[in-house]
Design goal:
Structural class: alpha+beta
Largest sheet: 8 strands, mixed
Helix content: 25-40%
Number of helices: 15
């Protein structure tokens, strides 16, 4: 290449636009990540292939812990308007007799119904509306991302095309929220680990005013010849999922036969088929979730069969786990090793949830041999043990594994509360009722049943943590009881509400300050959060 040719190539190359964070994919995970980062003052550009919400069959349920993440993203009130509580999950045999029932309550430990049903396109629209209202977020739709590169420890270059040509974004970090066919996953050299579940199902979404035989929860039909799932999504919208040998379009008679256990469908009745689509349920997890400052989230990192309703939940947990860490590194200069805890914490958790979903799938579809019949028989008997169904329902989200930000065993006994998510009761402060997170804001929190010692308060001050005495909260003693049950006087909550460390009952110090302090040390002052928190509720205590 001559000097003139090289100069011409430089002139035609896109000029880089500098952006703190680029997010590839504007599904619920990507947009929620953008909103969470914006509330910490981090600007994002979200790149999405589609101009409008893509109307394909997607998630229809989240749990109360994940609904708390939507609260943190600032869209709880809007979500409440489109969601409804579900009674739980039933396992039915081939004759639709109840084998097991896993009940869910209208008020879970995190301040919301344990299971909320919704229509994902409606969720995506309200998230995009919130994105449009947020100063530090920009959505660029109708674009194709064609390249993601990072040299050594330098910035991340994200190249995309639109109708005007090719553009280059130069970012401090990139989040790949671009689904199962992720370009970002390919860019970091990650590969799928197959967790040995793959089935082809047909998903049917309908709208009808006809009387549907429905118990207001989710039915899983454990019939190896024709496994199925049924639920009312919201209002007059319903979903059926069937594993069929032929996934071609269903005619009226075939559809009428399939849904007959729930609905008597006559010709000309008020029944609108909104969509019918084949869908492959897979269980996979990426062998690596990051490279440098490029990260995978949601379906780009893991695929979960839908049988326990945790696919979208896992992706939103990814966003909540990563965003506070990324903001702390970008805004306050925390150690880069803090970002390594994203994969080490989330990957084992996601693997556990995928295995639960696969186990449920095999209970439904695990063949017709003697062993399968025995498994179903054991399941039917086991779930009749008092309290077992309730306990199984609570274990969908296990504690995080031990790591730099999740301290392990102590000489006082087991891990107890460490690695779990703090509950969120309603509290009263200055005569007003609010959920706990509205009081705590986005920062670290020292939640204590006893006045903190000077050394403990110094640790809190060093983290910029708020110190809150549970006796002042007016929560009918729920947090005090939680601390007692966990044999702790004090807990240190991370911004994602995970218990990072404790002061054991009768102790005076956190169990392992040295283990996490170096990762959280900052070189720049804390920036004010963009989150709107009622100042009258902020009653930090320093004693």
């Amino acid at each position: 290449m001559t000097a003139d040719q090289a100069s011409g190539a430089r002139d035609t190359a896109p000029r880089p636009e500098h952006v703190p964070v680029v997010i590839v994919g504007a599904g619920p995970v990507g947009v929620t990540a953008a909103l969470l980062l914006a509330r910490r003052g981090v600007r994002t550009v979200v790149l999405e292939r589609h101009h409008e919400v893509y109307p394909m069959p997607r998630a229809v349920a989240i749990d109360d812990e994940v609904r708390r993440i939507l609260q943190a993203a600032g869209v709880q009130e809007e979500f409440a308007a489109i969601a409804r509580p579900a009674r739980g999950l039933r396992l039915l045999d081939a004759r639709h007799r109840v084998m097991a029932e896993f009940s869910r309550t209208a008020q879970g430990a995190h301040g919301f119904p344990q299971t909320s049903m919704f229509d994902q396109p409606e969720l995506e629209r309200l998230l995009r509306d919130a994105l449009a209202r947020t100063r530090d977020c920009e959505l660029r739709g109708g674009v194709e991302v064609v390249g993601i590169e990072q040299d050594a420890d330098g910035p991340v270059d994200v190249t995309y095309r639109d109708d005007e040509g090719e553009h280059l974004l130069r970012a401090d970090a990139a989040l790949g929220c671009d689904g199962a066919g992720s370009l970002t996953r390919d860019a970091i050299g990650a590969a799928w680990e197959d967790l040995r579940f793959e089935e082809r199902w047909t998903v049917i979404d309908v709208r009808t005013s006809l009387p549907v035989r429905c118990w207001e929860g989710v039915d899983q039909i454990c019939d190896p010849q024709r496994p199925a799932t049924f639920m009312r999504v919201s209002g007059d919208r319903y979903r059926w999922e069937f594993r069929l040998e032929d996934d071609s379009a269903l005619d009226h008679e075939r559809l009428r036969e399939l849904i007959a256990p729930w609905l008597d469908l006559a010709h000309g009745a008020d029944f609108e088929l909104l969509r019918q689509a084949p869908y492959t349920f897979r269980a996979r997890i990426a062998d690596r979730w990051s490279h440098g400052r490029v990260f995978l989230l949601g379906d780009a990192a893991h695929l979960t069969p839908p049988f326990i309703g945790q696919g979208l939940c896992a992706g939103l947990r990814d966003a909540y786990n990563l965003t506070w860490k990324l903001a702390r590194v970008l805004q306050q200069g925390s150690d880069e090793r803090l970002l390594e805890t994203y994969e080490s914490e989330r990957k084992p958790h996601a693997r556990h949830v995928i295995r639960l979903a696969v186990a449920m799938g095999w209970a439904m579809t695990g063949g017709q041999d003697g062993a399968a019949a025995l498994r179903r028989g054991v399941l039917s008997a086991a779930v009749r043990v008092p309290g077992l169904s309730t306990a199984a329902g609570r274990d969908l989200s296990p504690a995080l594994t031990v790591g730099p930000l999740v301290r392990g065993r102590t000489r006082w006994g087991g891990r107890g509360l460490v690695g779990t998510v703090c509950p969120q009761p309603w509290v009263t402060a200055d005569g007003r009722r609010a959920r706990l997170d509205e009081l705590l804001g986005d920062c670290f929190t020292v939640l204590t049943a006893v006045p903190p010692s000077p050394s403990l308060q110094a640790v809190a001050d060093g983290l910029g943590a708020r110190t809150v005495l549970v006796a002042d909260l007016g929560d009918e003693g729920r947090l005090a009881a939680w601390l007692r049950a966990g044999r702790a006087d004090t807990v240190l909550l991370r911004p994602d509400r995970v218990v990072m460390d404790i002061v054991p009952a009768g102790g005076r110090h956190f169990t392992d300050t040295a283990g996490w302090s170096s990762l959280l040390h900052t070189t720049r002052s804390t920036l004010p959060s963009r989150r709107n928190v009622d100042k009258s509720l902020l009653r930090s205590r320093t004693r």
